[in-house]
Amino acid sequence: xxxxxxxxxxxxxxxxxxxxxxxxxxxxxxxxxxxxxxxxxxxxxxxxxxxxxxxxxxxxxxxxxxxxxxxxxxxxxxxxxxxxxxxxxxxxxxxxxxxxxxxxxxxxxxxxxxxxxxxxxxxxxxxxxxxxxxxxxxxxxxxxxxxxxxxxxxxxxxxxxxxxxxxxxxxxxxxxxxxxxxxxxxxxxxxxxxxxxxxxxxxxxxxxxxxxxxxxxxxxxxxxxxxxxxxxxxxxxxxxxxxxxxxxxxxxxxxxxxxxxxxxxxxxxxxxxxxxxxxxxxxxxxxxxxxxxxxxxxxxxxxxxxxxxx
Amino acid sequence: xxxxxxxxxxxxxxxxxxxxxxxxxxxxxxxxxxxxxxxxxxxxxxxxxxxxxxxxxxxxxxxxxxxxxxxxxxxxxxxxxxxxxxxxxxxxxxxxxxxxxxxxxxxxxxxxxxxxxxxxxxxxxxxxxxxxxxxxxxxxxxxxxxxxxxxxxxxxxxxxxxxxxxxxxxxxxxxxxxxxxxxxxxxxxxxxxxxxxxxxxxxxxxxxxxxxxxxxxxxxxxxxxxxxxxxxxxxxxxxxxxxxxxxxxxxxxxxxxxxxxxxxxxxxxxxxxxxxxxxxxxxxxxxxxxxxxxxxxxxxxxxxxxxxxx
Lengths: 310, 310
Known about the structure:
CATH class of the largest domain in chain A: Alpha Beta
Oligomer: homodimer
Radius of gyration of chain A: 21 Å
Number of strands of chain A: 12
Largest interface: A-B, 69 and 70 residues
Helix content of chain A: 25-40%
Distance between the termini of chain A: 32 Å
Number of domains of chain A: 2
CATH superfamily of the largest domain in chain A: Bira Bifunctional Protein, Domain 2
Strand order of the largest sheet of chain A: 3-7-8-12-11-10-9
């Protein structure tokens, strides 16, 4: 029985999550705090993935939510997803300019015009900040495998709890030869499907359909689909007809290797591929499929996530 | 023996951390990725604090790095620390405006002026986003104890590795009566000292000296010192003469209760106090005191942090 009287199924699920105190609203669409219970599902999912991947000897790197603006502008995000960007601005004046800022603020004028762009943007993807750190390097024969987790930001206010403006991605990135990159992507489509199915999420791989911006974006969308480079594992969360991508497996060819001058052992431009788990979306899928009370989740799922151990 | 030839002791320590691959530079001062080893020290420190506090039955809440702009403007950060703020801006135009944005970008003009402020700011403190979620509420007799951890942003580019622009705070916040808030702060000064001393960090409590902005800020600084509301636990990291605050214990009186209308059980305006652990700074203090090779840390410290268990 639902008391929220909301016809929109996305808002309806959001209301349920808020009523169960799993998500705590911030007053901004798509920005929430999470409860300890919600967070523990993510921690245990990450531990599960970590146990599966420990044998792969990935290098662990953790990037903060902000990202060098100079590196951002070397990518094509400004062309393809300008509407999703997060540019960080601050006040850089002295006392006199501060008085003027306060005056504008108190008069209800637009005080933010007085701010200046800082050296950073919010990271739009967990792996973007990685490639510049490998700039000018030559990879070992085996390539590199990097384990990342960070917050990403996408400015797309929405009532769909699975479309947050700020969320975390756990990513495994392969830098290496074209064969190594492709094998990484394809191997992970299977491996990630297995992990998610073991949690009762019957994911299906589909070719990705990214929200490229504007008129030019329609060409990009068609190209992306033709190239079959990026797959997503989707599962229904709120809607059976429009299942939600909870992971993405993307081969970038030599895009990042070329922009940031990363070479393979034999001197070719490095290729890259990434496998990204959308952590909040995975938790939201689990709560939708197994119910809002973690104690009542199927024993097999509780065991896989070691929810009884803590 | 040091090969970095850097006279600045802050840069020198930074160079050592980078050479040891504990921190990975981003090209922006004060923005780093952390290695798995660095991160594990933080994870285990958080586990240690968590074991100490489990009996207190704190509510766990985890906020993202961004914060409702409307709530931000109800605080006095804009007055006191405008130079540290992070205001998140994005592109909100259509195709025509996008073409102009790209033209400016490609011509080397200031494309960021075409962006608009979003609904969010970067959070300047881990506990700021908490108070609005309690707005309009009446606390139970015992008050509330909340366990927070989040990224905060402060725009203060620096070569001191302990002055990052983006870092994580683990905070314990008490909402309650004046007595409950003060007891929280005072109890935590002792408790946090004990935890940090058990790790070989001989911290000392000092009255805080926050970097209030500009001419008006000098008055605020004097007031802060007179009121004795905020203490920091300091320990030398790079400099013996200028030890670094690695935790802060702050009583806010009824400031947040008043701004966000939070009441105690008997109808008074709630008081609040917070205890914040600067997680990156604590790791940096441990690496400075015990060396860059975690395997060689004193057995007692390794045992306290359960570094052998993993």
